[in-house]
Write a structure and sequence with these properties.
Blueprint (H helix, E strand, L loop, with lengths): L1 H35 L22 H16 L5 H9 L4 H8 L1
Length: about 100
């Protein structure tokens, strides 16, 4: 019988410790949310928490990406720049077709 009582006492301590750890985790999560989200932002999907310690871009990789982009611009069709500007400006396809001929 002593063994059963010891197991029960051990399990009770284990469950109490789990409950305490869960409570601490929730308080920490609440503190993080309070720190990162200061005010009601209206549309929560438009905002994300601050990223701490963001890595800088690799200079070699950035240069390669710029080289690829430059090559694509050299291969662009005659009115390609007009099309890109129209899309970036939110124009309809009809407006873009009318302005580019």
């Amino acid at each position: 019988m002593g063994s059963s009582t010891q197991k029960t006492t051990g399990m009770t301590k284990f469950y109490k410790k789990m409950a305490r750890n869960l409570a601490v985790d929730r308080v920490r999560a609440w503190d993080r949310r309070r720190r990162d989200f200061v005010d009601d932002c209206g549309d929560p999907d438009a905002y994300t928490p601050l990223e701490y310690g963001a890595e800088q871009r690799d200079a070699v990789d950035a240069r390669r990406q710029l080289d690829v982009l430059a090559q694509l611009f050299r291969q662009m069709p005659e009115h390609g720049l007009d099309i890109l500007e129209g899309i970036a400006g939110g124009c309809s396809m009809k407006e873009i077709a009318g302005s580019s001929g």
